[in-house]
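REVIEWER CHECKLIST
Item 1: Sequence provided? yes
Item 2: Single chain? yes
Item 3: Sequence as submitted:
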Amino acid sequence: MFWAVWAVVAAFGTYFCMYAFRKPFTAASFADVSVLGESLKPLLIVAQVFGYMVSKFIGIRVIAEMPPQRRARGILLLIAVAQFALVLFGLVPPPWNAACLFLNGLALGMVFGLVLGFLEGRQLTEALTAGLCASFILADGVTKSVGAWLLARGVSEFWMPAAAGMLFLAPLALGTWMLSRVPPPNSDDIAARTARAQLTRADRWSLLSRYALGLTVLVTMYLLVTILRSVRADFAPEIWRGLGERAQPGTFTWSEIWVAVGVLVANGCAVLIRENRQAFFAAMATCGLGFVLIAAALVGRHVSGLSGFAFMVLIGLGLYLPYVAFHTTIFERLLAMTRERGNIGFLMYVADSVGYLGYVAVMLLRLVRGGSIGDVDFVRLFELACWLTCGLSLICIALSWRYFAVRCPAPTLAVVPEGAT
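Item 4: Structure as written out by the authors:
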């Protein structure tokens, strides 16, 4: 139990701090700078997410093949590159400094896979990974609050991201050191969840081809959730203002605290289900619950006048239930259920690469269409995207449930003939 608590604290702290190098800049509006009549902010978001997406594609191979002893050093190197990019962001004049955020995203995209590698393949993986995922739910709001706090104290919009990163360098180094001391899975873990192995190119293609249809449907659902989650995160100030709420620094933090608590409890409890097949389908049901909550929030806003704060919390909870279920349970129990050779990092980076590719496509479409960011009715577009995500994702759940129920049937109990000993 000591090492379980140690691992959760280390993973939570490391990835929480990573967000300080990624998200604070989205608390700024960059309204004083425009590019071809368009606000600078969408261009900056696209640049960073594009780098993040490219990193996910690179990570499909790198994370799958990464030796465990090199993970901690890899995290520190990537964070150093990301902070250097933020310093350049303050030095290079706009709009050319958008390229610095591309470099920042390129460095940060592989950090999650390296941290996850310390936690997977254990009997307590869901609880450990739920703690890790709680970090990026909370950090999304907290690091925006830090960015807003620095802006309120006179730090310029272009130097605020580097200043925020500097505040978190020391705690990130401490968290990474703690991760490096986490022992590998023991024999009981391996018996319950299978050994997690590095994968060659042939291993990766073999795993994907054997479950191609089921994985395609799951990744499609993850794509939809990733796009909507990213819109909610990157344009939170604009959505909050559209809902009639003041987007103060503490607003981002308090809304995400409620989301994190709900998601942590719901997904972390999967560790109580010992049978891998049951846990896999329970996680699918958790995803369905998330989309029901999103639909309830949409209906509640228009029928009973649900407050903006409650609306954003319910939407966040509905989005993060399936998003975190993929990180904690779905891929973890899929490997354990099928006894396949592999690791969660590989499957997560396949899903993440597709998810962020979709978000980049959406943001590029937004840039091509042009127009001022202030002219966009974010709430209306966000609600439409929520309805579309709910409908398509529920179809994906039904299809993937059917596929894996047939492909991985429940074990049957042998019938002992009467009189046999």
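Item 5: Key structural point noted by reviewer: The chain has one domain: 2-407.
Item 6: Recommendation: ____
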